[in-house]
Specification:
By secondary structure, the protein is of the alpha/beta class. The chain is built from 13 helices and 12 strands. It has 3 domains: about 120 residues, Rossmann fold, CATH 3.40.50.720; about 160 residues, Rossmann fold; about 40 residues, no CATH class. The chain starts with a strand and ends in a 14-residue tail after the last helix.
Length: about 350
C-alpha cells in the first residue's frame, strides 16, 4: 500500500508523476481543480484528520499549533513551497517530530525581473502614460486634423504635450541601493550592473568582500539612502527590520530618487511613505507589498500620481511553478531516502 500525500499546491506534471510513483496523492485547493483557493485552518485540520497523510505539500495554508496538535500521527513531513514559511508553527511541528522544509529562491528570478521592471517604469512614466491614453486624455476626437509631417505625439487640441510632461530619466549611469543582499539581492546585482547601474549594498550580515563579489560597495543605510537614485528593499522582516524605513529615512533620500519595495510591507512605515509622496519629497515609488493586504478602497495611495501599485504579484510567474516543483521534489525524495532534506527549517535539537 502506497504512502499518503496531501497536495495543496500547484506542481508541474513531471513532479506530480514522480510523486505519484511513491505516494497515493489526494489533491486539494491549488493542488486540485480550484487553483485560486487557499485551504483555511478549519479545512486543513479536517483534511489532515480525514486523509491521514505522511507528507503534506502546502504554500500559504495555516499549519498552526492547533492543526499540529490535531494532526494524525502519520504526518511526518510538511513541505512548504514558500521561502519564508511564516504560516507554519515550526516549534509545534518540531515538538511532534514533524519535519518542515521550505523552497528558498523559488520566485527569486520573478522578483528580480519585477524590480527591474519597476525601475524602468518609474524612470519612464510607463504606467502613467498608458493610463493617460486609456482614459483618452492624450487622444483626439475623431476627425481632428493631423500634421502628418510631425511624428511626435503632440497636437494643439491636446492639453498636454507628453514629450515634455513625461520627460523621464535614463537608468544607465545611475546608482541602485540594495537594502539586503540575500538570494534576490545577489541575483539582482549583476543584472542591474548590466543595465549600467552602479551598486551599493546595505546588509549587516554581509561583509565588504561579499558585496564586492557582486560588483557592489558595502555602505551604511543612511549613506545608501542619501546617495542612491533607486532604493530597493530586499530584506526579511525581523524585530530589527520591522518599520526600518520611515519619515527620517525617506527624508535622507534625494528629491529625484525613487523607492521600490518588492520585499515586505512591514519593512516600511506606510503612513510616512504616503506623506513623503504627497509632499513630493522623493520622485516616486513602486510598491508590490503593503502593511495591509489587500489595500482598502480608501487607501491614500490611490490618490497619488507618483506611485506604481501592484497586488503582491512579484513572485507570480508560470515559471515559478517549475522552480517550486524542483525544490519540493528534492526535499521529499531526501526524506524518503532517510537523509536530511536540503531545505529543512526546523531541525531537531542537537
Amino acid at each position: 500500500m502506497k504512502r499518503k500525500l496531501c497536495l495543496l499546491v500547484e506542481l508541474d506534471a513531471p513532479t506530480r508523476d514522480a510523486l505519484a510513483e511513491r505516494f497515493a496523492i489526494a489533491a486539494f485547493g491549488k493542488g486540485g481543480d480550484d487553483r485560486d483557493r487557499i485551504v483555511d485552518e478549519a479545512e486543513l485540520l479536517a483534511l489532515l484528520s480525514r486523509e491521514r497523510p505522511e507528507v503534506a505539500i502546502i504554500e500559504q495554508e495555516p499549519v498552526t499549533s492547533r492543526v499540529v496538535a490535531a494532526a494524525a500521527p502519520e504526518l511526518r513531513l510538511v513541505a512548504c513551497v514558500r521561502a519564508a514559511p511564516n504560516n507554519i508553527d515550526l516549534a509545534a511541528c518540531r515538538d511532534k517530530g514533524i519535519l518542515v522544509t521550505n523552497a528558498p529562491g523559488r520566485n527569486a528570478v520573478a522578483v528580480v525581473e519585477m524590480t527591474i521592471g519597476f525601475m524602468i517604469c518609474l524612470a519612464r512614466f510607463i504606467p502613467q502614460t498608458h493610463h493617460e491614453i486609456m482614459c483618452r486624455r492624450l487622444t483626439l476626437s475623431p476627425g481632428a486634423p493631423l500634421n502628418r509631417d510631425d511624428i511626435l505625439w503632440q497636437h494643439p487640441d491636446l492639453k498636454r504635450n507628453p514629450y515634455i510632461l513625461y520627460r523621464g530619466v535614463e537608468i544607465d549611469g545611475r546608482t541602485l541601493g540594495l537594502v539586503g543582499l540575500g538570494i534576490i539581492g545577489r541575483m539582482l546585482a549583476p543584472k542591474a550592473a548590466a543595465l549600467g547601474l552602479r551598486l551599493m549594498v546595505c546588509d549587516p550580515y554581509v561583509d565588504a568582500a561579499a558585496a564586492a563579489a557582486v560588483g557592489a560597495e558595502k555602505v551604511g543605510l543612511d549613506y545608501l539612502l542619501a546617495n542612491a537614485d533607486f532604493v530597493s528593499l530586499h530584506a526579511k522582516v525581523t524585530p530589527e527590520t520591522r518599520g526600518m524605513i520611515g519619515r527620517r529615512e525617506f527624508e535622507l533620500m534625494k528629491p529625484d530618487a525613487y523607492f521600490i519595495n518588492t520585499a515586505r510591507g512591514a519593512l516600511v512605515k506606510q503612513d510616512d511613505l504616503v506623506r513623503i509622496l504627497r509632499e513630493r519629497r522623493i520622485a516616486g515609488a513602486a510598491l508590490d507589498v503593503y502593511d495591509q493586504e489587500p489595500q482598502y478602497h480608501d487607501s491614500p495611495f490611490l490618490e497619488l500620481d507618483n506611485v506604481i501599485l501592484t497586488p503582491h504579484i512579484g513572485g507570480a510567474t508560470k515559471d515559478g511553478i517549475k522552480h517550486q516543483s524542483r525544490l519540493v521534489l528534492r526535499n521529499v525524495l531526501a526524506y524518503l531516502d532517510g537523509t536530511r532534506p536540503p531545505n529543512l527549517v526546523n531541525p531537531p535539537p542537537a
